[in-house]
């Protein structure tokens, strides 16, 4: 056991092996058999391991789990779970069923390839019983592997698999303790950006709050709530697509503000079509941070975040929930998955907030701007009414700004910031990194 009293991977695997009530199978594709290896290496494996298999060849995999096009996918993972579970019960239910809590662990992984050209990720699943003869529960995870080498990624998968099986049987009291158990000894090595749980023993666990916990606990950079259908990993909606990102806190969920938020996103999509005529339409997302902007501000409650997400999705908007509020972090994240143009759509209040707070975590404000506007990224600045702009300035205690207005509206090119920061503002405006948008025909409040 580790000195701190926390069980290490070796001890977790050994404890499971020494518990005669747990027995299961392992099917691993794409990163060796690192999970099964732990149980085989620590001793007493016959107490836990019914079978291990690694169907690397596609024809072999298709014969076992049915034909498929995407071998690293949720659909393939579910086929593996069904097949392995059914075989386990068929062979062992009569002889071991009354005294055994069965489980099947499966994964399908795309680890770092030899050339280092792929985005390492994978799907991990567990089906298990908490009581002998009980109804099975499922846990499905999508992961991104952050280690630089294939060997390190295999090692991390092994630790994650042991953590998952151990947490399912021993750390189900609270969602937080369960997720913490999954992530032990894996800091900065594996990102979990999707989790789904099923079964009677998860009846009280809300899917939305579980996904939010991934970002709130620092296990994921972002999670996705599509406008239509169930949540998916962000990679599935961002991959190779042009994007419109509309960041904000979206604290008002009434119908009036919802219409404004919708207009903010739709206006940016139209602006994109004018900038890139004849190209495919961009995918649009509202972007909500799960953490506060300033160090002394409270983090938003999960219930508040879920209310905002539901309100935005109800108007047909997909939502990305990011761990951090800085726009440059969002740029870095989406550039993992796409080289197509990325455009932010932001109200003037958010733009002003960026200049006031300076996003100073990573160094100078110049460094922040270079990260934000990397790789074909621009910011569409949505105008505000002069009345709302004045109120926003007061709320932000921003005293270094002046502006002109046209018909009661203020656009980005009518704003002026005192030097020296004003020179930066003029530069990004003149360089077309910051693109002023036209005021809408009908007067509305700002988002």
Task: Work out the radius of gyration.
Answer: 25 Å
Low-confidence stretches: 442-447
CATH level 1 name of the largest domain: Alpha Beta
Count of strand segments: 17
**Share of residues in helices:** 25-40%
Provide a descriptive summary of the structure in words.
- Helix content is 39%, strand content 21%.
- It has a 7-stranded mixed sheet, with helices on both faces.
- The termini are far apart.
- It has 2 domains: 9-205, Maf protein (Alpha-Beta Complex), CATH 3.90.950.20; 235-436, Rossmann fold (3-Layer(aba) Sandwich).
- Strand 4 and strand 5 (137-145) form a beta hairpin.
- It has 447 residues and is α/β, with parallel strands linked by helices.
- It has helices spanning 9-17, 34-41, 58-65, 74-96, 150-170, 175-183, 207-216, 235-238, 255-275, 302-314, 327-334, 348-357, 365-372, 386-396, 421-430, and strands at residues 22-29, 49-53, 101-110, 121-128, 137-145, 190-198, 222-225, 243-247, 283-289, 318-322, 342-347, 377-382, 384-385, 401-403, 409-410, 415-417, 434-436.
- Mean pLDDT is 91; it is low at 442-447.
């Amino acid at each position: 056991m580790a000195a701190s009293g926390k069980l290490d991977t070796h001890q977790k695997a050994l404890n499971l092996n020494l518990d005669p009530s747990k027995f299961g199978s392992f099917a691993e594709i794409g990163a060796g058999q690192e999970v099964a290896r732990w149980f085989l290496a620590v001793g007493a494996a016959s107490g836990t391991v019914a079978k291990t298999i690694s169907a690397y060849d596609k024809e072999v995999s298709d014969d076992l789990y049915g034909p498929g096009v995407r071998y690293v996918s949720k659909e393939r993972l579910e086929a593996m779970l069904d097949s392995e579970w059914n075989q386990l019960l068929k062979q062992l239910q009569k002889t071991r069923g009354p005294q055994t809590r069965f489980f099947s662990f499966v994964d399908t992984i795309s680890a770092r390839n030899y050339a280092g050209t792929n985005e390492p990720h994978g799907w991990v699943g567990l089906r298990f019983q908490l009581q002998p003869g009980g109804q099975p529960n499922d846990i499905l995870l999508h992961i991104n592997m952050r280690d630089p080498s294939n060997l390190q990624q295999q090692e991390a998968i092994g630790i994650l698999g042991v953590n998952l099986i151990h947490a399912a049987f021993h750390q189900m009291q609270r969602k937080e303790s369960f997720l913490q158990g999954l992530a032990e000894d894996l800091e900065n090595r594996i990102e979990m950006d999707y989790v789904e749980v099923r079964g009677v023993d998860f009846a009280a666990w809300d899917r939305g709050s579980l996904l939010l916990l991934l970002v709130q606990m620092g296990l994921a950079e972002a999670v996705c709530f599509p406008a239509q259908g169930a949540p998916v990993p962000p990679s599935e909606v961002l991959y190779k697509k042009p994007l419109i990102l509309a960041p904000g806190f979206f604290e008002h969920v009434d119908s009036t503000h919802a219409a404004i938020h919708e207009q903010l996103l739709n206006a940016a999509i139209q602006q994109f079509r004018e900038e890139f005529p004849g190209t495919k339409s961009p995918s649009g997302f509202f972007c909500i941070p799960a953490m506060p902007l300033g160090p002394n501000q409270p983090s938003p409650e999960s219930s508040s975040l879920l209310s905002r997400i539901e309100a935005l999705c109800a108007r047909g908007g997909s939502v990305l929930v990011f761990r951090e509020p800085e726009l440059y972090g969002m740029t870095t994240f989406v550039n993992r998955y796409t080289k197509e143009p990325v455009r932010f759509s932001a109200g003037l209040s958010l733009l002003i907030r960026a200049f006031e707070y300076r996003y100073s975590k990573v160094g100078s404000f110049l460094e922040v701007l270079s990260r934000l506007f990397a790789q074909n990224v621009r910011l569409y600045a949505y105008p505000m009414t002069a009345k709302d702009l004045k109120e926003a300035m007061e709320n932000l205690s921003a005293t270094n700004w002046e502006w002109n207005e046209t018909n009661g509206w203020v656009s980005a090119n009518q704003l002026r910031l005192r030097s020296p920061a004003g020179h930066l503002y003029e530069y990004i405006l003149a360089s077309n990194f910051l693109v002023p948008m036209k005021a809408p025909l009908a007067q509305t409040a700002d988002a």
